[in-house]
Specification:
The chain has helices spanning 138-141, 242-247, 311-314, and strands at residues 51-61, 70-74, 84-95, 103-108, 111-117, 126-133, 145-151, 163-173, 186-189, 200-202, 208-213, 218-229, 260-265, 268-273, 303-306, 319-327, 333-343, 351-357, 365-371, 377-395, 398-417, 422-439, 445-452, 455-466, 469-488, 491-511, 514-529, 535-543, 546-553. Helices cover 3% and strands 53% of the residues. It has 556 residues and is mostly beta strands. Pfam families: PNGase_A_C, PNGaseA.
């Protein structure tokens, strides 16, 4: 449902303020303010060692939509020169007035280290803060690097909110208790710029490509990919087939709901990821996400794609091209990627070959439309992916074969009625990627990353005339389940798990520009392992913009 696009374009540290209220959105309630945003995500751990916090940026983002990114230089602090056990980025801000949600990104040395979006403010104003572990970028942080921060905002007589943002890096020195972090040997950005916003905005059918030359002694190649849809593809999961969208263009977007993020090496299919169904803070109905944001709204997780089977092709000292494509895109997508490279410390040259690649860049997507009761049209879209890549490398430790295999399953059902004003969407997507490493001598090892991204949206637009006269209501369930395991003997041993779910209801209505209804309830339950391996269980419930319940348990 796209009417929300009129209202919005696109592990919080704030303490929760307790309020009272019922657990259901009330069409007669007018919520004028809400507390600072809060999520159930576990906090980033802080090693008990000497550390230094450096303010890398403090800037007001006013009318910046067409301006270059804010830029500066990141330099290792003299009092914490490294080696480091951990480096943590803190992103905090405040805004008041009226404003859309905005996409933001941070690049260090050309590598995107944070992708996020902003909350929509109130007249009284809100503030929020989040943290992200950026230790994997230590190979860049050891030397001075350019930093760029993009937050494209619009300020005029209507949209008055200026985002006052601050970014810090905290460097935790390694010692005998906290050893130096284990990272890739080299971080190689594939972004569009080192001094400006590095992402690339792609129209339907377009791809982002970067040609680089890699070290000749590679032993491992991993890619981190960011991809978010915009415009009609901001909520790609409730898009419908083109013929149905053409009947009700005021309410529906076409292209269907299936998307995947594809990666190619020198034009050869190399890997893919199913994108997470992100909802911006102004998405569907803005009151759904006050004060608990949707999953992935503030701390966007990148997609990890193992390209080691292709390493034997990449060590010839010649330029090679890496391409990212948002398959199925019906509107613009913002993409970016970074390579994390490991090298042979005892050899100047490795060599090898790609031996198998069964991945096709043309998925088999099945779509059916079936008439239902009244004017209801039931749309069903499904897809299954099974593929693998395999290759070997001759290294100083002998010949090593790496095989990446993936199974992915997707189903989206959408009951569309009332001329496109009512949609009931249920999307399930899940799968697992297994990486098996088989050395010439010794036993093979394997890791498995499994995911599940359920989302259900029941949205209604009983009235829509223009931006000053409309009525919206919705109920949303959103989840993200992640499971990382290693093969031990003949069984899988779980090493990290996340089970995050958000449930929200919201209403919003205006008549002649005057708000006549605005209310919401939401809850989030996060249970899983923290970055130290501890079990963490956090439940938050909120009504009318304020937290009513907050419970944290170690779930041991």
């Amino acid at each position: 449902m796209r009417i929300a696009g009129v209202l919005g374009t696109a592990a919080l540290l704030c303490a929760a303020l307790l309020g009272t209220g019922t657990a259901h959105a009330d069409a007669g309630q007018i919520e004028t303010n809400y507390q600072n945003p809060v999520t159930a995500l576990p906090p980033v751990s802080q090693p008990g060692t000497h550390h230094c916090t450096v303010t890398e940026m403090q800037n007001d983002f006013g009318n910046t939509i067409s301006s270059p990114a804010w830029s500066g230089t990141v330099t290792p602090p003299a009092d914490c020169p490294g080696p480091w056990n951990k480096v943590v980025l803190t992103w905090s801000g405040s805004v008041q007035g009226r404003q859309y949600d905005r996409l933001a990104g941070v690049w260090i040395g050309g590598a995107e280290v944070l992708r996020t979006s902003t909350p929509e403010p109130t007249a009284a104003g809100i503030s929020w803060s989040l943290q992200k572990d950026v230790t994997q970028f230590v190979p860049l942080l050891r030397t001075p690097q350019p930093i760029a921060v993009s937050l494209g905002n619009v300020v005029n007589s209507t949209y008055t909110g200026v985002y006052d943002m601050k970014l810090t890096l905290t460097y935790y020195q390694a010692d005998h208790r906290y050893p130096p972090a284990h990272t890739a040997d080299q971080v190689l950005p594939l972004s569009a710029s080192t001094t400006d916003a590095g992402w690339t905005y792609l129209n339907p059918g377009q791809s982002s490509s970067k040609t680089v030359t890699l070290p000749r002694n590679l032993t491992g190649v991993d890619m981190e990919v960011y991809a978010r849809g915009g415009g009609c593809d901001e909520q790609w999961f409730d898009s419908v087939p083109n013929d149905l969208a053409a009947k009700y263009p005021n309410y529906l977007c076409g292209g269907g709901p299936y998307r995947e993020v594809q990666v190619a090496v020198d034009g050869r299919p190399a890997g893919l990821a199913q994108p997470y169904p992100v909802v911006y803070s102004g998405g569907i109905v803005p009151t759904l996400w006050r004060p608990i944001p949707a999953i992935d709204q503030f701390v966007t997780q990148a997609y990890d794609i193992n390209l080691t089977p292709f390493a034997g092709l990449l060590v010839d000292g010649k330029p090679h091209t890496f391409t990212v494509t948002p398959y199925g895109a019906a509107d613009g997508w913002t993409v970016d990627s970074t390579l994390f490279l490991t090298t042979d410390h005892h050899a100047a040259q490795t060599y090898g070959a790609l031996t198998s690649d069964t991945l096709s860049l043309t998925p088999a997507v099945a779509t059916t439309e079936t008439p239902g009761t009244g004017d209801t049209v039931n749309v069903r879209v499904s897809a299954t992916r099974d593929w693998s890549t395999s290759g070997w490398l001759a290294t100083s430790a002998g010949r090593v074969t790496t095989t990446v295999s993936q199974h992915a399953w997707y189903l989206n059902t959408d009951a569309v009625s009332q001329g496109g004003q009512l949609q009931i969407v249920n999307q399930q997507e899940y799968g697992a990627t297994t990486v098996t490493t088989a050395p010439e001598h010794g036993h093979a090892t394997a890791t498995r990353h499994a995911w599940s991204y359920p989302i259900t949206v029941d949205s209604d637009v009983p009235l829509y005339t223009d931006g000053n006269n409309y009525s919206l209501s919705a109920t949303v369930h959103q989840g993200r389940m992640l499971d990382d395991s290693v093969l031990t003997g003949d069984h899988w041993r779980q090493v990290a798990v996340t089970d995050d779910s958000v449930d929200a209801t919201g209403v919003l209505a205006r008549t002649n520009g005057v708000t006549t209804a605005a209310d919401g309830t939401d809850s989030e339950h996060w249970i899983g392992t923290t970055d130290t391996g501890a079990c963490y269980d956090h439940l938050i419930r909120a009504a009318h913009g304020y937290v009513t319940t907050g419970r944290v348990s170690d779930c041991s």
